[in-house]
Amino acid sequence: MTGIDDDLVRGTLRHLADDVELRDLRPQVLRTSRRLTVRRRVTATTAVAVLLVSGGVALHGAGPGGRDTVLPGISAGPASQAPPTGSPAPLPGSTGQANASTKIGTVYFVEDGDAVPQDVLRLVSWTPGQTQVTALRTLPRSAWRSVNVAPDGRSVSWVEGDTGPLHVADLRAGGQETVIPDLTVDGLLLEPVWARDSKHLLVRSTAGKAGVVDVDRRTFTPLGTNLPADARHAAYAADGSSIAFVTAAGAVVVVKPDGSGQRAVPGLDKLPLNGRRITGVQSLSVGYGDVHGQWVHLYAATPDRAGDDGRSLLSNLTVNTLEGRQVSEAGGIGEFEDFQSTFRNYPGLGNSAQLLWRIGTPAEFALKGPNGEFLDGSEPPAALRHYRMLNV
Question: 212 to each of 36, 234, 259, 390, how far by Cα in Å?
Fold first, then answer.
């Protein structure tokens, strides 16, 4: 038997090493991991959703007149699904996978008032990775354009109609509904928006003053600098450092929480909007004053829809607030394809993580990192088909 020539083997390996091209396989691994994660969850969710949709759960006393309301595929559950107190645990690195049920937390939805005919709309919660949706309460149909849930998940606010009294209800068991006295506010354009402390609401009174309502004290304090009369559809940054809103002409403006430092996002007139007009802000990332700017999720309406001034709860465009540059990597979603979004400030990411709900078939709920990298995904239950996600 002929012995092995060690020198020959080592020389051959050196030649092979010289010819090998180094490649970074992390993107391929990330995409494969993403597909496998979603596929596993789709299989599990679909199996359970068939059982849920085949039956119904009565939510006692939630319907009009105190009648039971049957919610197909939705569990009655406890009256409150507030997320645990304290900051979420840090997510793994940009290529890691988060556990959706523990890292994302509870997400809140309202029934789509443009898609369902009933006089009352359901407010529900869901934790990605789970199969059941929990009914929290019903709301008057007129609250569709203005309903918002506080960041701590313990309160919900709304206005009945285009203008009216400000309602605030405690979502915890036995919680009460209150009306802020001596105040009539805008419910169509600058609908009430919760500050990140879950104790204050940005509103505009019918006298034209933008200000903040202290929910505990039930008082209204005007902003130090009033917002433009045509300011509409505002959103607080995920860290509360700023507010973004749009104007009637489609400009996007970022301001400090007291209304000062108003700055229009430049360059939007250079975006290829193809006749669309920006009509709403859905969510805003952290980082006000950062040299890299913030990301803002916007809705650019086609001419046939641009006349509807009410809130859409949809996004189809992401821009950088510093340059007005379109951020294509934000969601990985097709051009002007409708999606829903909210930014959340997760420690350890250095910026906001994005919760993106792709509207369509198949629907997909994804957690993405500050650079658009995929962290986790989950298939929404079938019960959420006619619901819209709230920016919480």
Answer: 46, 13, 11, 20
